[in-house]
Amino acid sequence: MSVQSTTPRPVAANSVWPQLESLLPQVTKPIQYVGGELGAVVKDWDAATVRWALMYPDAYEVGLPNQGVQILYEVLNELPDVLAERTYAVWPDLEKLMRAHGVPQFTVDAHRPVRDFDVFGISFATELGYTNLLSAIDLAGIPLLAADRTDADPVVLAGGHAAFNPEPIADFIDAAVLGDGEEAVLEITAIVREWKAEGCPGGRDELLLRLARTESVYVPRFYDVDYLPDGRIQRVVPNRADVPFRVHKRTTMDLDAWPYPKKPLVPLAETVHERYAVEIFRGCTRGCRFCQAGMITRPVRERSITTVGQMVQEGLEFSGFHEVGLLSLSSADHSEIGDMCSGLAQQYEGTNVSLSLPSTRVDAFNIDLAQELSRNGRRTGLTFAPEGGSERIRKVINKMVSKDDLIRTVVTAYTNGWRQVKLYFMCGLPTETDEDVLEIADMAHEVIRAGRAATGSKDIRCTVSIGGFVPKPHTPFQWAAMERPEVIDGRLKLLKQAINADRSLGRAIGFRYHDGEPSLIEGLLSRGDRRVGAVIRKVWENGGRFDGWSEHFSYQRWVDAAAEVLPGFGVDLDWYTTRERDELEVLPWDHLDSGLDKDWLWQDWQDSLSEYEQDDCRWTPCFDCGVCPAMDTEIQIGPTGKKLLPLTPVNGLKLPAGGQQ
Ligand code: SF4
Question: Ligand 1: distance of its center to the CA of 211 in Å?
């Protein structure tokens, strides 16, 4: 990793650094608030016409590697008259000191107050970041409620996957953008630039109106929600004539035209990923019915093998990273993944660069790719994700994997030298019974038994990892009832007992799981409407922070807040979570268009209940999910027939002779 310069950086005129610096020795990991990373940009404040503060609402160690923020940061800073800086959630120890000393939420780049920026953009990967949003807004000195803000406040703009249902945070944000950000931020910047150049006519309201008129920026204040006496939504309608009835998602169709990040940020403090990550495609049409990311990012758009090769080379040269991640929702599905992996493996053979490919495919091809990528001697872990324990439940979720396929694949991994594999499942899926979950134990036993027989060794292991199912908007499971946490926890207890019932096999099986309570709260937030905003606020006022972290999450705090707030609206926590919706119910996000046809989603939900599987439209005819006609496009996949090469010889990455780490 590159060594950072120790030359003191100049302090910007509006920097809070002088006040902040004396607080940092009193907090944990102060380096996370210092900025100045390789790849960071500090621009002249006065020379900029539009200024963005970008936030990932979690700690630096989670937020810095976030691809979405890194891409937008670079895209915006490439514009000569635009300035973008980053801010992350501060830990409670620093928050306390900032409040005591009057230090506002600041950016890590030039330590400028977030309130001074024109746009405060927050990217949400998960709804459990909502309490951190409230902390940041409040620490910034921005009124918590959008309705109370003045022209002196930035536009608070939400993006990321959670923005596909921003209703629970509708009171706290000014706007939300659905879909890909690269082109959207440029369009928003142009609107802000023009409005400011005209002297800010009509104030904040006019700016928001201009954004809303693009039809891809949702401004909640321009929409009213009416409710039925039983608590369901009657309708969501614009409260003025000049905004659209439906807001559409943005889709960047040509990924080769947007080869970002070109200059990845190299963290100063430890982070969850320290690697150069290249997105090799967006979208997924495998059709797993629980997967919001797969649904809302359609259609599939591949980045070409040549662009990927070029990005890897330039990204490594810039950053000095030793690891490359070839990312997507299912990387082994890229039409030229074989050539891509062998080309990169060949290019970096004998260097200290390792390549990894997150893929949850359950087939031998995955192992071939992993072998190719481990030529440098570094073996990345192998994860297979059957997701459901029984054949029946896998049909319900549309994960087309047979038990025999899984066992054959894992045994192939063992015979090819892997000693440890991870198997990923979900618990709490629609229609799930105890028996479906207990079949996970049979599968794990079978894997170890077959692995031992094939290798003749007892030195093999597998880890069973279980996540809680959360029904998400814009998926076929958006109508499904969630299971109660105590039922989930009971099933997991039975599963643990079943795994350990055979001690010889159980010894070789690790078991990791999350209990059901955080999933239920995530379910409340993901399918909530505007009334849930009062619960979020109450939890935040009662100390809720970093809810995505098990050590900070308090289930009781959420249950108590929901019990205090929701009955006033005639609803409760169960109403939002364990209640199945019917076909005609207006869902809080129906006016937000992900491109998916609601009738198709309903039909797929019915197919799920009939245990009917749906193929992938990459390899079979279109099944009319609605996205391609809505975007006036088609799926974009190869093969292009091009080769990864020519790449120039690798500079600066070779180790001395024989050097492998
Ligand atoms: S519209 Fe057809 S081709 Fe396009 S993503 Fe949906 S199913 Fe696939």
Answer: 29
